[in-house]
């Protein structure tokens, strides 16, 4: 049988090959909202995006269930090289920006009520948030085209620094107290949000400044990937405002904020309370499947280019979405991201659902979790003033910005260097 595996792999076909096109329904949500509102005459349908993402998708997840199957290992190279899957991500961008321009046209006419205009803003914000996920998929690749498309996709949400911080910060520090994008046990989403937004910008700037200093280039220049990304956003918003008038600017800002808040909610979910251990040499252990929460819910994975198979993504950042694998040892979320995002917005509910799962993952030992410093004692066993490090960490354990950047491996650029 083992000798027949390569032949079986050659005959294997991705059963979800054409279902990945469902992801392209997301950037058309504003068009869908406009059509539904026009046909029914009901302004409530301008809120179609949030309803679709946080009501319909969870229902579809429940109905279709989970899929933990992996492609045959021998088929991975062929699957990875299939350019069809790349075009599924490329096509998101023209639909994304087409919907944004169309939404600006609707806002500029002044025919929508305030509630309807805000609904369209929220629907467009869902598109912007999922666009960051598309940028995430593209930004991890070595091809120059995909990296450029990644930065373009981030322009709508003004989150271009994510391109630097995620690749060169988060992937190095994930599941450690130093990572602004890794949430801690006992930390509510509403505490996490300002910490991760401010911390990610600060970290991205320090990383980019260090990269440019090493190359002997000025920080305030066209070589700065953060400044160029923000310039793209400024140009986009400037052109839309000049074309459609100042009345569209508040809606543009609204959808941008909602977009990056959606992204940060996903960050909150993905690594909640998970902690990498310290090795005797003071470095953190290698990132492993147990350091990310996973979900195999079929529909959510189709709409998010399999982002929910997050463990394999962190272990193999260059692996394309169609080849990401399920690992039995990875901690599993009770539902897909759509459901967990809403759960995260209600901290008591979130902790009721997730803290027992986190403690079970750590065999009941809260000291092995990434704990919020102000965590209080609960029925789950979290210490009243829990340390932010597991008890066996060396005494020289330090946190803080300076210690963080001293510890960042010099191989950061070799993982996925940013362009000049």
List the helices and strands and how they pair.
Layout: H1 5-11, H2 29-40, H3 48-64, H4 76-81, H5 84-90, H6 92-109, H7 114-139, H8 144-154, H9 162-173, H10 189-214, H11 225-244, H12 249-270, H13 298-303, H14 310-315, H15 337-344, H16 347-361, H17 401-407, H18 412-415
Short recap of the structure:
The protein is an all-alpha fold.
Explain what this protein looks like in three dimensions.
It is a single chain. The protein is an all-alpha fold. 55% of the residues lie in helices and 0% in strands. It has 18 helices and no strands. The protein has helices at 5-11, 29-40, 48-64, 76-81, 84-90, 92-109, 114-139, 144-154, 162-173, 189-214, 225-244, 249-270, 298-303, 310-315, 337-344, 347-361, 401-407, 412-415. Helix 12 packs across helix 15. It is globular, with a radius of gyration of 22 Å.
């Amino acid at each position: 049988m083992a000798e027949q595996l390569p032949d079986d792999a050659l005959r294997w076909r991705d059963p979800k090959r054409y279902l990945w096109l469902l992801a392209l329904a997301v950037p058309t949500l504003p068009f869908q909202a406009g059509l539904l509102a026009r046909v029914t005459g009901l302004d409530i349908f301008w809120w179609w995006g949030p309803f679709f993402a946080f009501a319909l998708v969870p229902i579809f997840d429940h109905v279709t269930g989970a899929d933990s199957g992996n492609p045959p290992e021998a088929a991975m190279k062929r699957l990875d090289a299939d350019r069809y899957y790349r075009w599924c991500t490329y096509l998101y961008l023209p639909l994304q920006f087409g919907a944004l321009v169309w939404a600006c046209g609707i806002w500029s006419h002044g025919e929508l009520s305030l509630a309807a205009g805000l609904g369209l803003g929220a629907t467009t914000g869902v598109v912007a948030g999922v666009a960051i996920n598309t940028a995430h998929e593209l930004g991890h690749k070595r091809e120059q085209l995909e990296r450029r498309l990644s930065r373009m996709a981030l322009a709508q949400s003004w989150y271009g620094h994510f391109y630097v911080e995620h690749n060169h910060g988060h992937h190095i520090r994930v599941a450690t107290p130093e990572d602004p994008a890794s949430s801690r046990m006992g930390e509510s989403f509403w505490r996490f949000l300002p910490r991760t937004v401010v911390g990610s910008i600060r970290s991205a700037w320090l990383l980019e400044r260090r990269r440019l200093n090493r190359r002997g280039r000025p920080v305030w220049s066209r070589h700065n990937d953060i400044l160029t990304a923000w310039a793209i956003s400024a140009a986009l918003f400037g052109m839309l405002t000049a074309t459609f008038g100042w009345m569209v600017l508040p809606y543009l800002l609204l959808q941008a904020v909602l977009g990056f808040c959606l992204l940060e909610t996903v960050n909150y979910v993905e690594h909640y309370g998970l902690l990498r251990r310290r090795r005797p040499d003071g470095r953190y252990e290698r990132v492993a499947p147990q350091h990310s929460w996973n979900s195999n819910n079929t529909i959510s994975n189709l709409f998010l280019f399999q982002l929910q198979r997050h463990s394999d993504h962190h272990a193999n950042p260059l692996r394309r979405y169609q080849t990401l694998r399920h690992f039995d040892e990875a901690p599993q979320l009770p539902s897909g991201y759509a459901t967990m995002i809403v759960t995260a917005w209600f901290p008591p509910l979130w902790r009721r659902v997730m803290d027992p799962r986190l403690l079970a993952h750590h065999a009941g030992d809260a000291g092995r979790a990434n704990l919020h410093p102000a965590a209080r004692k609960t029925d789950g066993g979290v210490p009243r003033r829990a340390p932010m490090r597991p008890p066996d960490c060396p005494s020289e354990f330090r946190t803080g910005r300076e210690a963080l950047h001293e510890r960042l491996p010099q191989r950061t650029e070799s993982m996925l260097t940013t362009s000049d």
